[in-house]
Amino acid sequence: MPRVHDMLAAAFLQEGVSTCFSLLGDANMNWATRMADDGCTMIYVRHEHCAVAAAAMTFKRKSGKVDVATTTCAPGLTQIITATGAAYHALPDVARMPTQIRDAFAQAIRERRPVVLGVPMDLQDKAWDAAPLPVPSPKRMRHVGPIPPNPDDIKCAATHLANAQKVVVMAGLGAVHAGPQAQALAKKLRGLLATTLPARGLFAEDESCLGIAGGFSTDLARDLLGQTDVVIAVGCSLAHHNADGGKLFGPAHVLKINSSGHCSYYFAQMPSCDLVAVPALVAKAKGVTLWDFPIAHKIASPVMQRAHPAKGHP
């Protein structure tokens, strides 16, 4: 007779999981064994942080797929939740587990954040009545087409750029596939380049790159960033370390380009203008374009298309 851990494995596999990073123990070995038997590639690690922070999150960034990591019960589990800002859901009701798993995948895709599921050990070995699994999240989540930016936001950004003399284009993880476009933008605006710490090396061969913007900035980078009129943050979260507690950019206007307006609550430096749009439509909105301003030629579609390509999940 099938057990709950068999159902759990089936629920994960129907979400398209093909790779799992695992720290095994009594709490997850039956589930992990069934996952492996049914074709999931299991990659074994020695610490919770390796499973989640180093391996699974890197896999997600490179593959674009929702990643899965599993750990046994141990104090390291609480560290993972704290360090990643993950949502946590307990699964105490066997009948609701398949739906909760489906909803957790949907939440991870929608909110672009880790989700931790806690499954009690004693429930995993109970008999499962083989009830049908719910429709998986990819079949329930509607693909959203390109979202045009608010024309007032476009006008705001263009106004700040119109009289700017010193511009820095700063790329974060959301722009790691948009290196050439960000370089072209900086060149057009006669500006410099920088990256966040996670995106370091993106412009390594460009002589106009200041390197990392944040707590690890060089003295030269700090000096030049402090003189900047406008910082164009592409795919950046503008978190505390990136802005060095809000001190790094001085009085500069920060123009943020991102496909999501989420997480503004932890900005160390609030943007002067927040362009929220999924690809290609930043350049033009209701007749107001950045091309109306000579120095503001390109905060536009190629950068957005490469920084946030349209796909079914983040």
Helices, strands, pairings?
Elements: H1 4-13, E1 19-23, H2 29-37, E2 41-44, H3 48-63, E3 68-71, H4 76-84, E4 87-90, H5 97-111, E5 115-118, H6 121-124, H7 137-140, H8 151-162, E6 167-171, H9 179-188, E7 192-195, E8 209-212, H10 219-226, E9 230-234, E10 253-258, E11 273-276, E12 284-285, E13 288-289, H11 301-307
Parallel strand pairs: 1-2, 1-3, 4-5, 6-7, 6-9, 7-8, 9-10, 10-11
Antiparallel strand pairs: 12-13
Helix pairs in contact: 1-2, 1-5, 3-4
Kindly describe this structure.
- By secondary structure, this protein is α/β, with parallel strands linked by helices.
- The protein has two domains: 4-140, Rossmann fold (3-Layer(aba) Sandwich); 151-307, Rossmann fold (3-Layer(aba) Sandwich).
- Helices cover 33% and strands 17% of the residues.
- The chain contains eleven helices and 13 strands.
- The protein has a six-stranded parallel β-sheet with strand order 8-7-6-9-10-11, with helices on both faces. Strands 2-1-3 form a three-stranded parallel β-sheet, sandwiched between helices.
- Strand 6 (167-171), helix 9 and strand 7 form a beta-alpha-beta unit.
- Helix 1 (4-13) crosses helix 2 (29-37).
- The protein starts with a helix and ends in a 7-residue tail after the last helix.
